[in-house]
Amino acid sequence: MRLWSLILLFLFTVGLRAGDEAAPAVTPPPAATAPAVEAAPPVKPAESAAPAPIFTDYRLTNKLVQVDVIDRQGAIRTISLLETHPVRLHAWQAKALAQQGHTVPDPAKPLPVLSAFNPGGSYHNWITDIGLNDKTLWKKVSGDDSHLVLSHETTALRWTLRYDLPADSLTLRSTLTVENLGTADTSLRPRIYPLNGVHQDDVKQDAPYLALVHHGGASGKMTSLYLPPLPTPGYPGTPTAIPVEQLDYVCVKSRFFGVLWHPLGHAVHDPGTSTAPTPTPAAPVVVDGGPGSVSGGPGGSLPAATGGARALMQANAVGFKDVNGGHQAYLEVTLLAPGGGDIVLKPKQRLEATWTITVASMSERDRELLGETAAKVEYSDGYYRFFKSLAWLLTVSLDWLVLVVQNYGVAVVVLTFLIKLALHRTTFKQHESMMKMQKLAPELKLLQEQYKSDKQKMAQKQMELWKKHGVNPLGGCLPILIQIPIFTALYLAFCHSADMRGHGFLWINDLTLPDQLIGWVVGGWTISINPLPIIYIGVSIWMSMMQKVPPGADPQQEQMMKMMRWLPVVFGVIFYNFPSGLVLYFTINAVLSTIEIKMVRKKLGMH
Fold first, then answer.
1. Residue 493 to residue 513: CA distance in whole angstroms
2. DSSP alpha helices (H): ranges in 18-149?
3. Bridge partners, residue 147, by sequence
């Protein structure tokens, strides 16, 4: 309900300044559950062994992405964005993390967007139910910076997992092959956990934005699932089925980051047939600008699986609470035979399945690499999607200002001044109307006394009086109506603009997070001193104290104005954990409004 709190705060703030005349964050509602699909009982993505498992690490890397793969089942341990870094923490925040046993992120190192989030199983691209012990260590067949092949073999089966990471791409391609080396049929129902959580800068701030998004093709519909948070860390929540008939990709999306899984199909092949995955007999579909570029360029495309290939699987979204107490989700995919049920491999046959995993921030650079279809995940928040045009305009304005002033904090100050300047004429009209109302106050009071027993007649006489003197009683509403969408769009811009992430101002480390300059952790609760909301409260109270009760005001109006003087304290509490960039805007706006009101009153001769 943060967005509605923001609008109420705005109404109060602007209304107070015209007082003489008298909202990863929205917590979206849970999306409708997808049609029921028979789902197998949840299986842990990977067991957390004690003591810690011993495995060998292999690394793939290009200019954008670094992938760490382990030889245990060929799972992914981390995927990091090389040009994106963790946010800087204040000293007390780093100390608190260390005391809680967590690793303190180094802002100079690449950011692991996929990491060990799930206490029930910390790996990604985990494959199980393929006729092999989950703890088996696979052997490296070949590998370099751009590809890796791992394999394991028994007398009955051979398992091979190949990874390909093209240059200048955010997309990792995975190909699983299971070959029957024996003399008897083998039944499999492979289960894959490609995405097991996603990075969040602040688990409390980002929780309302955590969603599992699925998209139905280039012209299809994007659906966001908001899974209910769980009370304790661990695994799992209740699975929510994802319809797969028109599935293009599934994305685990946090406030500023998204990880996309894109199925390319799976099939059983006879000996000597093509090694490429064979979809059902239908014309191949190409999704323009799919999630990432296998060819290595921003304009590349990914072939989408046909409707038949999509139908040969089940997909479930499952929520969990991560090791840091954050709200998370993972994806569970089960591969099926064409008629449903287990996949049967006859002797010498092999199963081949291919999919891609794309890791990206929601920055402009990464969105361009994603392409048009996949970049839609930026607008997983319905409120942001509704106001995206205005939010985009304000975000672009800030970006242009940053080119000049070289700092987002300074850009916010300049933008506040420009908005105030653009709306100055409406403010002047507001106070001009207010001044006329003050002059008519004695006559209005006489009318109220004269027609106190006839409300309808009194209202008629009031309208005649206002019309005679050219007063519009609703004239003060125009500035409020103009600024409501501006305030809302600013809130959404600061909550969703990944390009602002990591930019500080004065003592503020990150304008997209609260300015928690000093703090303590007491009994699991964080208590912090956030200077900007405190400054806002002080400025707003001082501004309200300057407002005088208009002449002729009745006792009820006078009492109301006295009560409103202390409302900034209430709204300051609401502001306390808002993005500091937004609070900076409101604080500067309050200061400029106070100066503007004094200038307008002086020009109009108001006292």
1. 13
2. 91-99
3. 164
Collect contacts of 1-4 with beta carbons under 8 A, ≥24 apart: 1/26, 1/27, 2/26, 2/27, 2/208, 2/491, 2/578, 3/383, 3/488, 3/491, 3/492
Six token digits for residue 540: 């707003």
Tell which phi-psi region holds residue 81, choosing left (phi > 0), alpha (psi between -120 and 50) or beta.
beta
First-to-last alpha carbon distance for the chain, in angstroms, is 39
Residue pLDDT, tens place only, 548-571? 665 555 566 666 666 666 777 777
**Residue range 127-380 in CATH 1.10.443:** no
Bridge-based pairing of strands 111-114 and 126-128 is unpaired
Structure tokens at 82: 């090389």
128 CB-near residues (< 8 Å, 6+ apart) = 43, 45, 73, 134, 190, 191, 193
Domain ranges of the chain: 2-26+388-604, 127-380
How far apart are the C-alpha atoms of 59 and 143, rounded to whole Å?
9
Distance of alpha carbon 331 from alpha carbon 43, whole angstroms: 12
Quick check: 483 and 10 in contact, CB under 8 A?
yes
Interatomic CA distance for residues 225 and 227, integer angstroms: 6
Kindly report, residue by residue over 480-523, the tens digit of the pLDDT: 677 777 788 888 888 888 888 888 888 888 888 888 888 777 77
Instruction: Tell me the backbone φ, ψ of residue 306, rounded to 5 degrees.
Output: -75, 170
How far apart are the C-alpha atoms of 456 and 453, rounded to whole Å?
9
pTM recorded for the entire structure: 0.75
CB of 381 within 8 A of CB of 496? yes
At residue 271's C-alpha, the angle toward residues 267 and 274, to 5°, is 55
